[in-house]
Design goal:
This protein is about 45% helix and about 20% strand. The chain has about 325 residues and is an alpha/beta fold. The chain is built from 11 helices and 10 strands. α2 crosses α9 and α4 (about 95-105) packs across α11. The protein is globular. Strands 1, 2, 3, 4, 5, 6, 7, 8, 9 and 10 form a 10-stranded mixed β-sheet that branches. The longest helix is centred in the N-terminal third of the chain and has 24 residues, at about 1-25. The chain folds into 2 domains: about 10-125 and about 250-320, D-Maltodextrin-Binding Protein, domain 2, CATH 3.40.190; about 125-225, 3-Layer(aba) Sandwich (D-Maltodextrin-Binding Protein, domain 2).
């Protein structure tokens, strides 16, 4: 009986210790939640939905987008950081979460480097300057002149106080030498709606979120904040061509998991992202929107996020931006 008890105990222990291994081999055996810390309609939401399509197809399991906007992505990022590290919660976000907000705020409910396991960078894309159709300007230089003729009267929108395009707007004011009033929203989508409606004068944002509205004649794009014109929208001049050299801003997206997610799961997700983002149909969809796919390794993403945090700290110091 004693021998039998020992055999049963050893067998039970083997099952207990093997369970995580079997669970990882069977991964994923249920739907995955993809937190996007923005409301629907903005560039990161667009990227999250594309990424969910890619992973759903390749993993043969539903990947469900869960929009948790607010507080310059802090709400959604904190939720992701505190989720179980079992591979069934991931976060798709932007430079706001991992560089801008941490550079602005000393105290956050999450640590951008310590609380997440990097999976892969996804994309990068240039910012564009968009204006309301009601604003009587047709170039970057005309907008600057109009702002100087009406000091402190123009308004510009962003995805929220402390967001990446809030900083981009402050950088624009600093370089152009103008005054304008910042109007924060709970995401890019609501800001774009008010821009189209004329409630705000202009905003800076990703080309993927603003170009479709410009194509529909709902707003005007005055400049692209990159070194050369966009292949997708070659009619839009660069800021340098519009009389404002040296202003270059781009956005990026990445996918991460809560810290402690098993390395085998991180490896699997990374492999599927890299393979999926190199499929011809996905590449075509991205390039039609002037989005550059940059899927890579977790180590590359970790190094990139660290360098971006350093860069944004320097930019914020230059501009003098502070957040309550």
């Amino acid at each position: 009986m004693k021998l039998l008890s020992r055999v049963v105990f050893v067998g039970a222990a083997a099952v207990v210790f093997a369970a995580p291994s079997f669970a990882q081999q069977d991964y994923p055996h249920r739907p995955i939640r993809m937190i996007v810390p923005y409301p629907p309609g903005g560039p990161t939401d667009i990227m999250g939905r594309l990424t969910s399509e890619v992973l759903s197809k390749r993993l043969r399991q539903n990947v469900v987008v869960d929009n948790r906007g607010g507080a310059a992505t802090v709400i959604g990022a904190e939720m992701a950081a505190r989720s179980p590290a079992d591979g069934y919660t991931v976060l798709v976000s932007s430079e706001t979460t991992f560089a801008v907000t941490p550079a602005l705020k000393d105290k956050l409910p999450y640590d951008p480097q310590r609380d997440f396991a990097p999976i892969s960078q996804l994309t990068t894309q240039p910012y564009v300057l968009a204006v309301s159709p009601s604003l009587p300007v047709n170039s970057v230089s005309q907008l600057i002149a109009h702002a100087k003729a009406n000091p402190g009267k123009l308004t510009y929108g962003s995805a929220g106080t402390g967001s990446a395009n809030h900083l981009a707007g402050e950088m624009f004011k600093h370089v152009a030498g103008i005054e304008a009033i910042h109007v924060p929203y709970k995401g890019n989508g609501p800001a774009i709606v008010d821009l189209i409606g004329g409630q705000i004068a202009y905003m800076l944002g990703s080309i993927s979120s603003l170009y479709p509205h410009a194509s529909a004649k709902k707003l005007r794009l005055l400049g692209v904040a990159s070194a050369k014109r966009s292949a997708t929208a070659p009619e839009i001049p660069t800021f340098a061509e519009g009389g404002m050299p040296g202003y270059q801003v781009s956005g990026w997206n990445c996918i991460v998991a809560p810290r402690g997610t098993p390395p085998q799961i991180i490896k699997r997700l990374n492999a599927e992202i890299v393979a999926g983002f190199n499929q011809p149909d996905v590449l075509e969809r991205l390039r039609k929107q002037s989005i550059e796919p940059v899927a890579g390794t977790p180590d590359q993403l970790a190094a990139f996020m660290k360098s971006e945090l350093t860069r944004y700290r320097k930019l914020i110091k230059t501009v003098g931006l502070t957040v309550e």
